[in-house]
């Protein structure tokens, strides 16, 4: 029953958000859905194939990070993790639950906590850095697209925390010893057995695993970066196909600029799952008039590349909670 309730509430949130933004843009949800209904079967089949490939790349990215640390990840396990990842990312403004959820799921599969944290964080940071790099470069040197003044001002602020996280990751990668010694000293001043102490010790223990990934010359390290780039290009390809169907004529550079920025907004917007924000931003970049055709592109893109697996993710996570013991989280920090 709880699984059904989670899925229903999430689906209702997406629906009501779509209704609100479609109303704000001057095009009813019915018109947008009618336009989506005009997508022919051959195009749906092509979109389905690209969408499957899109999520397979998510599995490859995490699998390659775990492989560097000597842990396998089967496709079925990876798919469950992907679903949970998109679900928990949609619950809070800054995806605060993503890392704890991945640690919980991976430790349930036998991956030691420090290595689960290192693999999950490295995978996410690599992907986000590639998205921001491509988006910022294309916005600066590529095809000019209209951006709202507020977004132009706020964009550097959105990326600033990411740079701080990246610097922290680099510090842990190249100087794991000092990081671990510092966390141990700080933990010694905290309440023994307290949550803060356990978290700090967990971060310190993860420094060596992050260092192993950061310094690794294993081919799997390169695979993660390649999969991240192809992941982004697949998202762009899906967006370009939809835009072409709905009458937008885009060059490859124009499409790369719009849809890489769309994905950056989806990753960085301080709104749970960027629900509504990513749709409107994508539609605005296609046409500042926020036409029904632009909304049809953005809504379909987001359904295929986010909501499609986010709703099942609630059921997967609820099932793992139940297996862990009546919805009680296990002590993942020891």
From TrEMBL:
InterPro entries: L-PG_synthase/AglD
Transmembrane segments: 34-57, 125-147, 153-175, 219-243, 255-275, 295-318
Record-linked Pfam families: LPG_synthase_TM (PF03706)
The keyword DNA damage is assigned to this record: no
Entry's localization field: Cell membrane
Topology term for the membrane: Multi-pass membrane protein
Keyword list, A-Z: Cell membrane, Membrane, Transmembrane, Transmembrane helix
Protein name: Flippase-like domain-containing protein
